């Protein structure tokens, strides 16, 4: 199970056209992540980090090469099929939480399962389980504006993992938090992903947070230039 590839990029390129100018955002990227793998992508602004995340998240298509998510080659899929991949196979965590303000913590975590048609009893049990794991069992009925930044991001982690997706994408998940709150969130994300064998691919500028990953990929000018295993 552990060796099953959840994410694979094969010679992926991405070229954007800005008027008469062509910008090469990715230049032949190869990467692979298996079940339970936590991969941090680091690099300067404009290096291609967000473009890789968009490819893996089925939000953009490569100019050439292959993107394989949970065994499915998604590079040439229709928008409807990509929507199914995003719904069924991927959880997302954003820098600024992206919680729905009018919903409680419980309802925010529940929402992906509601959309996917999971039954009420299973939804309720899963939400309660996750909120306890992230330390917010007693805050279930609080809305986002009643929670601290760290608490909101813990809700976002629970929401991303609510459907037990094979893949979780995290875009600067601790970028809006102080170092203590950031470490709490990252530790919860790592431990929960390991427990449930979800693969996490995250973009971060924070070396301390990246040190909690299994591997760090460094990207420069659209190419992965270094891969470091964390022991």
Brief digest:
This protein is an alpha/beta fold. Helix content is 34%, strand content 29%.
Structure characteristics:
231 residues; alpha/beta; Rossmann fold; 7 helices; 34% helix
The shape is globular
Q: How many strand elements?
A: 10
What is the percentage of strand-forming residues?
25-35%
Biggest sheet statistics = 6 strands, mixed
Name the CATH architecture. 3-Layer(aba) Sandwich
In N-to-C order, the SSE pattern is EEEHEEHEHHHEHEHEE
The chain-level structural class is alpha/beta
CA-CA gap between termini = 21 Å
Q: Number of helical segments?
A: 7
Q: What is the C-alpha radius of gyration, as a whole number of Å?
A: 17 Å
Average residue-wise pLDDT: 93
Number of domains: 1
Highest-level CATH class: Alpha Beta
- Helix residue percentage: 25-40%
Strand order of the largest sheet: 6-7-8-3-9-10
**The CATH H-level homologous superfamily:** P-loop containing nucleotide triphosphate hydrolases
From the 3D structure, determine the CATH topology.
Answer: Rossmann fold
């Amino acid at each position: 199970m552990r060796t099953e590839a959840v994410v694979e990029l094969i010679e992926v390129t991405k070229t954007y056209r800005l008027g008469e100018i062509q910008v090469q955002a990715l230049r032949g990227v190869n990467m692979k992540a298996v079940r339970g793998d936590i991969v941090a992508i680091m690099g300067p602004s404009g290096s291609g980090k967000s473009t890789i995340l968009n490819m893996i998240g089925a939000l953009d298509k490569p100019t050439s090469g292959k993107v394989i998510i949970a065994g499915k080659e998604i590079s040439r899929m229709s928008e409807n099929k990509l929507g199914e991949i995003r719904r069924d196979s991927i959880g997302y965590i954003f820098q600024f939480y992206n919680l729905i303000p009018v919903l409680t913590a419980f309802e925010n975590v529940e929402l992906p399962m509601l959309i996917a048609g999971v039954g009420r009893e299973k939804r309720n049990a899963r939400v309660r389980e996750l909120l306890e794991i992230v330390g917010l069992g007693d805050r279930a009925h609080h809305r986002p504006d009643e929670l601290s930044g760290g608490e909101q991001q813990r809700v976002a982690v629970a929401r991303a993992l609510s459907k037990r997706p094979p893949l979780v994408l995290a875009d600067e998940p601790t970028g809006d938090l102080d170092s203590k709150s950031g470490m709490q969130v990252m530790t919860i994300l790592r431990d929960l992903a390991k427990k449930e064998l979800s693969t996490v691919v995250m973009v971060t500028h924070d070396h301390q947070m990246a040190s909690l990953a299994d591997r760090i990929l460094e990207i420069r000018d659209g190419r992965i230039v270094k891969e470091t295993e964390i022991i």
